[in-house]
Structures are given as C-alpha cells and as structure tokens.
Design goal:
This protein is mainly alpha-helical. The chain has 13 helices and 7 strands. 36% of the residues lie in helices and 8% in strands.
C-alpha cells in the first residue's frame, strides 16, 4: 500500500512557483553575476592528490557520469547515483557528491533519514516545495530531477545516501572582511589578496577552489560569518525563536536530527540560511513545514544568518 501511495504521489506534477515575496538574499542564493566561461578542453588528463584516477574536463562535465576520484572512500554507487537517467535525471552523485557531503548550492545528504529525503522529493513533485529563485540553476535542476525520478530509483538513491556518514566539512570563521569573490554556482575567491567588508552576510567558499572546481570531494569549505554570529545564534536556538520552542525540541539535543526532522549540525550555513528564508517566505509547505512556518514567520534576516552560522559551527 505504501509503495502504491508513493507512486501516486510521484505522478503529480510540480506547480509554478509563487511570485517572490522579497528579493532572496544574494549570499544564500548566489546568482546574478555575469557568466564565467569554464576553462576550455585541452585533452589534458587532470589529477588530484591521493587519487590514481584522471579525467579530462569533458569527462568532468558529464552530468550523467560522476567523476569518482576516490572510490575507496564510499560504498559502490547504484546506477541512479553514479549515472542518473537522461535527459533530466542528473546523476545524484554529480551534485551531491559520491560521499553525500554536498556543496553550498545543494543539500548534504549523507546520513539524513531516508523517509525525510523521500518526502522532500515528493514535496517538490507535488509543488509543496517550490523553486524560490528561478535563476539558481542547481535548485531548478533538482526540481527537474524530482519530476523525472521513478519511485524505485528514489528509494535506491535515498537508501544509499542515508547509510553514509557525514564528516566535518565546513570551517566557520568569524570576521569583518572576506576575500573578494566571484559566483560560479557558489562563491569562489578571486585570484589575489583583495578583500571586502562582509557585512550582514555569510560567504562560504571552497578551501581549495582549484580542486573543488574539478569536483574533488576530499576538501571542504570555509564559511565566513559576522563576528559574534555563532554566540548570538546559540542563544537564539536555545531560547527559541519568537517565543517558540528551542530548536533542539524537534532537531534533537545536539541538532543531529530526530527521525524525519533533519540534522543541522555541521551542515552548510548557505543551505541552512536558504531554507530558513524559503520557509519564512512561504516556499515550503510539505510535511512538518507548518510547524517551522510558525517558528520562522517573524525571523529577521540577521537572525537567519546567526542561526545558520551557529548550526554550521557544531560538530556533525
């Protein structure tokens, strides 16, 4: 019966996104800068540290074949994770990585509850979780994948990712100034030593941009957050937002999740901030979203930054 119900839900199409209630913050929705052309193909066999594999740039750009630099670091990927299915179901591991660690432009899936992941895809399928920034390609692609995925492949992929262990991946640094950056699906530091004021933002960049660019998944990210953000976020999380329950009530005493309520500890602050904004602005209406909506409806932009910084600073 459960399989039949899920299959029926998966047959429902995604409705159009509502008009934006407010401009999405650029730090959480990195879009809008001029397109930066990727390096041309030269035929060179590229390498990364601690790997005997090599790939050309053309191979690295094949969204239906995951560049697996370190196959020894994870279980064998099922086909839907390693290859996907043309034309719109990209290989899950291409964006979320074979280890499920994810990147700032998407979700880290490693260790998440399988039921939660299935529900999120169903919510996209039903139009309950909408595209809040149509210019953000990775988000649009995920919704296209939700449209295209079969129930069998969804169950296979989520089982794979739920059995992976999420590792420390993000270093949180409180600062007033950050490297100047460009946007290439995520923020990437410009060459040189120029800096700019951080202000009321979080800027999350790869530790080793050259390796992240060729989809190596052994190096993580640095999240630059405003000074004092972690302590303010901790206070807010423990006190509860707008007189509501403390965040640990639902997300667990260590913020590592409770069943279908997802983990927050050590995950991308860019992603967490994006989802808090989406819930506040009414783009998520799936299971459990009503409870979160009551909590975040009056959440201020700076409070979103503080909460995202605090959760990212915790040990996963």
């Amino acid at each position: 019966m459960k399989r039949i119900l899920l299959a029926l839900l998966l047959s429902t199409s995604v409705s159009a996104a509502p008009a934006l209630a407010a401009d999405p913050p650029l730090w959480a929705f990195p879009v809008g800068q001029a397109y930066v052309a990727p390096p041309p193909e030269t035929g060179e066999q590229l390498k990364v540290p601690n790997s005997d594999k090599s790939f050309t740039r053309t191979q690295l750009r094949n969204i239906f074949s995951v560049p697996d630099w370190h196959p020894e670091s994870h279980p064998p990927m099922p086909d839907v994770v390693a290859k996907g299915k043309a034309p719109k179901l990209w290989a899950c591991g291409y964006c979320h990585l074979p280890t499920g660690q994810g990147r700032p432009e998407n979700s880290s899936l490693a260790g998440l509850d399988q039921g939660y992941m299935i529900q999120q895809v169903l919510d996209m399928k039903e139009g309950k979780r909408k595209v809040s920034q149509p210019k953000m390609e990775p988000v649009v692609r995920m919704h296209e994948a939700a449209e295209a995925v079969s129930l069998e492949d969804l169950q296979t992929a989520t089982e794979y990712f739920s059995n992976l262990k999420y590792k420390p991946w993000i270093k949180v640094v409180e600062t007033d100034k950050v490297p100047k950056t460009k946007i290439m699906a995520m923020y990437v530091p410009l060459d040189g030593t120029e800096t700019e004021k951080l202000g009321d933002r979080i800027i999350e960049v790869p530790e080793k941009p050259d390796l992240t660019d060729i989809r190596d998944f052994q190096t993580g990210f640095i999240a630059y957050v405003p000074k004092g953000a972690v302590k303010r976020g901790e206070k807010l999380a423990k006190k509860g937002v707008n007189g509501g329950a403390p965040c640990a009530t639902c997300h667990g005493p260590d913020y590592k999740g409770l069943g279908p309520v997802p983990t927050l500890a050590g995950r991308s602050p860019t992603y967490t901030g994006r989802q808090l904004w989406n819930m506040r602005e009414g783009f998520r209406h799936g299971t459990w979203s009503a409870l979160m909506a009551q909590t975040v409806v009056e959440l201020k932009d700076k409070e979103i930054i503080d909460l995202a910084a605090y959760f990212a600073s915790l040990k996963p």
